[in-house]
Amino acid sequence: MNTPPSPPAAERTDGSSVRIGALVPLTRPGWVEAGRHLLAGLELGVREVNDTGGVGGRPLELVVRDTAADPQRAAAAVDELARIGVVALAGEYHSVVARAAAARADALGLPFLCSSAVLDALTDQPTEWVARLAPAQSHGWQIYADFLLGAGHSRIAVAAQPSVYWASGTRILRDCLAARGGTVVELDMGELDPAAVCDQLVENRATALLLLAGHPEPAVSIVRSVRHDQRLAEILIGAPAGQPEFTEWATSLGDDGTAIPFLRYLPERLSSVGARVGTALRERLGEAPSFVAFEGYDTVAVLADVLGSQGGDRARVAESWPRVAVEGTRGRIQFSRTPGISVWQWAWTPVQVVDRDPAEPGRFRVLHAG
User: Which residues contact 319 (CB under 8 A, 6 or more apart)?
Assistant: First the structure.
C-alpha cells in the first residue's frame, strides 16, 4: 500500500526543533510535479533524521513555502523564513527563482543549500552562504552537446522562450557546437506558433530541435506538431532541461513523448543507500522517483550532517561547506570552488542523457553519460 506524502510539519515557536526553510514550487505556473518530487525527498530525509534521534537530540522541522516559480515570491519567503528563525534554506527547482532566493539569502547571511537549480550565475558575486547539489548548466549542457555531436547532429534548432535560463542554455549549446563546426538556429517562441516552427525546421535543414520552452505549453504542442509533420519524420526532438522525466509528460503525449533525450542526474547504478532511498521514495510518491526526489533527500542528508557538527549557528553552517563529506544517494558529496561558479559546488553529480523507450514508455534508456 502506497503511503501518501505527509503534510508539512506545523511550525513550532517554542524552540524545540531545528527548523529548515524549504522553497518548493507547489502551484502553477511552477513545475508542480517537480516540486512534489523535491518535497517528497526533503520530507523523507527529515523523517529518517528524526527517526534516528534528530540533530543533537532535537527534531528537524521543515518550514515549507510555495514559490510557484515566482522570483519575487521566493525572495519574500526568504525574508520571512529568516525572520522566524530557520537555520538554513533548502530546495528550489526553477533556476531563475533559485537565483532570487540565493541573492536574498546572501544579503541576509542565511545559509542556502540549493537542491536542483542549475543556472551557473546563481549569484552575481562569489558568496560563502550558498552551496549547490545540482550540476551547473554549463557542465550538464556541454555533456548534452557532446551527445548531439556524437549522434551526428550539427545543425540544431532551439525553440526558445524569453528567460535568463533558456538564453544561458542557448549560449552554452552555441559555444559547444561552434567549436566543433556545428550551428544553432534560435526560433523565438514569442513570435512563432508550432506550425511555423515546423516550417522553420524545414527551411533551416535542422536535424535536431531542442525544446527550450515551458511545460506543458508550448512544449507539448510543439512536439505534437513536429511528430505529425511528414517533412520532419527523421528529426530528433530533444529536451535538455528534463521535461520528459515526469509522468505528466508521458500522460500528455503518449507515444509522441518517447525518444526525446533529456538530462538527468543519476548514476548508472545506485549505491545501496540510493537503492534503499529509491524504494522509500517510490512508496511515498506512488510512482518511480525522479532525480529531483533524490536531490531533495541528499539536501537534508548534507544539512543534517552540518547541523549535527555545527549546531544552529548560521555563520558556522556556511563556514562548513568546504568540509562537507557525505555519502549521498548518488555518490560522495563534497563542495569546492569551481571556475565560473559563484557558489560552493558539488563537482560533479553523475550526468546522463536518457529518453523514454518507444517500446516501453515507462522505461528510460541511457543514451550517453558524462
Answer: 128, 310
Does residue 183 contact residue 177 with C-beta atoms inside 8 Å?
yes
On whether the CB atoms of residues 13 and 63 are closer than 8 A, the answer is no
Whole-prediction pTM = 0.94
Q: ω before 267 within 30° of 0 (cis)? A: no
- Chain length of the chain: 370
Q: Say if CB 361 and CB 343 are below 8 A apart.
A: no
Cβ density class 75-89: b for 16+ within 10 Å, e for less: bebbeebbeeebbbb
Exposure of 220 in the CB half-sphere (CA atoms within 13 A):
11
pLDDT in tens, 24-79: 999 999 999 999 999 999 999 999 999 999 999 999 999 999 999 999 999 999 99
Strands 360-369 and 112-114: unpaired
Strand order in the sheet with 344-346: 60-66, 18-24, 88-91, 112-114, 130-132, 344-346, 335-336
Of the candidates 135, 98, 360, 365, the residue with the CA atom closest to the CA atom of residue 241:
135
Report CA torsion sign: 66, 72, 78, 79.
negative
